[in-house]
């Protein structure tokens, strides 16, 4: 029997700090755009508490023994990702997987656009592991696991840092000696795939205002703000690493560098101990001593949970003022990612704190998770736009593969 002609598909993997999101999109070799999403899912959490869920795009839940095994191996583990990839391929019997796109958090100075992964590229990305210890090792482990299973399959790395690469020098520089800057120590910024997706989604929602002065609040387990002018990144709260800026699930956000010196000299913490403290034991978890998860904190009656949320909201307000200053004013505020899309309380408190900027919250719209949550008369509009990093990954991979085909 002649083999059936197969459609093309692109698989995408988005390994964040608290989850691995995955999806497959249909796309033909020369098409300008990816077609429909075929399936999607998520491994939420790591270790014993990891939960793995997947759905076809019509909403039908998917399951399978490999998926359960991947769950048992817990999330970021390379073997689990290998199992997951094998399972994904079997879910797509009518499709030939043409490529796998990965979110890679740090691209450093060199990678400012998506790139096909080669052994040389992988080595360069490896050197950036110290700059993104919560993410980069998992991103690269996934690439390696799939390369072992399917050595000829194109893998495409898409960078969280790339969207910010065009910022002005002043937005990127630290006031450190020049030779330190020349060694690559500067602000990079992250969550770029999310901001790029939102920038693309703005015109349909905001009309001409989309080209104005906009702050996007990506509030997930990692959290940052990005100032957009004409839909380009002008400034952002994360810096050299994804530690800077806002309070996050387990990360401290902005910190006087004198604290790091004090921890080392006076409290005798090693570099590894400081890294663990700042990346994994601080933020909402460190302040509340309860959880890094906003849902758990919002459900808790413990005053320490309330204090952690207070600090989270306070820091957003301060950083929002800073980005509004960088933009010379603000026309719109957009909420996205896990907390931004789902937490009415956080959105309400952030918007109330931004009243001085001219933002008036529409409480009913906020309660209803409406797309626009500011009043019609509000000078600054406020929005909730679900992000879609996975679609951005698929689009980048498709563009890169199509460019290769057409050469
Ligand atoms: N309904 C909800 N209410 C409040 N917070 C929520 C809700 N759903 C998800 N979150 C929060 O979103 C965060 C995870 O965001 P997400 O963007 O998925 O994370 P990641 O950075 O791993 O991609 C967690 O703090 C989680 O508690
Ligand atoms: C860069 C970053 O913090 O990513 P995430 O929010 O997915 O952890
Ligand atoms: Mg994320």
UniProtKB/TrEMBL annotation:
<feature type="site" description="Transition state stabilizer">
    <location>
        <position position="191"/>
    </location>
</feature>
<dbReference type="InterPro" id="IPR043129">
    <property type="entry name" value="ATPase_NBD"/>
</dbReference>
<feature type="site" description="Transition state stabilizer">
    <location>
        <position position="251"/>
    </location>
</feature>
<keyword id="KW-0547">Nucleotide-binding</keyword>
<keyword id="KW-0460">Magnesium</keyword>
<feature type="binding site">
    <location>
        <begin position="218"/>
        <end position="222"/>
    </location>
    <ligand>
        <name>ATP</name>
    </ligand>
</feature>
<protein>
    <recommendedName>
        <fullName>Acetate kinase</fullName>
        <ecNumber>2.7.2.1</ecNumber>
    </recommendedName>
</protein>
<comment type="subunit">
    <text>Homodimer.</text>
</comment>
<dbReference type="GO" id="GO:0005524">
    <property type="term" value="F:ATP binding"/>
</dbReference>
<comment type="similarity">
    <text>Belongs to the acetokinase family.</text>
</comment>
<feature type="binding site">
    <location>
        <position position="21"/>
    </location>
    <ligand>
        <name>ATP</name>
    </ligand>
</feature>
<dbReference type="InterPro" id="IPR004372">
    <property type="entry name" value="Ac/propionate_kinase"/>
</dbReference>
<dbReference type="GO" id="GO:0006085">
    <property type="term" value="P:acetyl-CoA biosynthetic process"/>
</dbReference>
<keyword id="KW-0418">Kinase</keyword>
<keyword id="KW-0963">Cytoplasm</keyword>
<feature type="binding site">
    <location>
        <position position="389"/>
    </location>
    <ligand>
        <name>Mg(2+)</name>
    </ligand>
</feature>
<keyword id="KW-0479">Metal-binding</keyword>
<keyword id="KW-0808">Transferase</keyword>
<feature type="binding site">
    <location>
        <begin position="338"/>
        <end position="342"/>
    </location>
    <ligand>
        <name>ATP</name>
    </ligand>
</feature>
<dbReference type="InterPro" id="IPR023865">
    <property type="entry name" value="Aliphatic_acid_kinase_CS"/>
</dbReference>
<dbReference type="Pfam" id="PF00871">
    <property type="entry name" value="Acetate_kinase"/>
</dbReference>
<feature type="binding site">
    <location>
        <position position="14"/>
    </location>
    <ligand>
        <name>Mg(2+)</name>
    </ligand>
</feature>
<feature type="binding site">
    <location>
        <position position="103"/>
    </location>
    <ligand>
        <name>substrate</name>
    </ligand>
</feature>
<dbReference type="GO" id="GO:0005829">
    <property type="term" value="C:cytosol"/>
</dbReference>
<dbReference type="GO" id="GO:0006083">
    <property type="term" value="P:acetate metabolic process"/>
</dbReference>
<feature type="binding site">
    <location>
        <begin position="293"/>
        <end position="295"/>
    </location>
    <ligand>
        <name>ATP</name>
    </ligand>
</feature>
<dbReference type="GO" id="GO:0000287">
    <property type="term" value="F:magnesium ion binding"/>
</dbReference>
<dbReference type="InterPro" id="IPR000890">
    <property type="entry name" value="Aliphatic_acid_kin_short-chain"/>
</dbReference>
<comment type="pathway">
    <text>Metabolic intermediate biosynthesis; acetyl-CoA biosynthesis; acetyl-CoA from acetate: step 1/2.</text>
</comment>
<feature type="active site" description="Proton donor/acceptor">
    <location>
        <position position="160"/>
    </location>
</feature>
<keyword id="KW-0067">ATP-binding</keyword>
<dbReference type="GO" id="GO:0008776">
    <property type="term" value="F:acetate kinase activity"/>
</dbReference>
<comment type="function">
    <text>Catalyzes the formation of acetyl phosphate from acetate and ATP. Can also catalyze the reverse reaction.</text>
</comment>
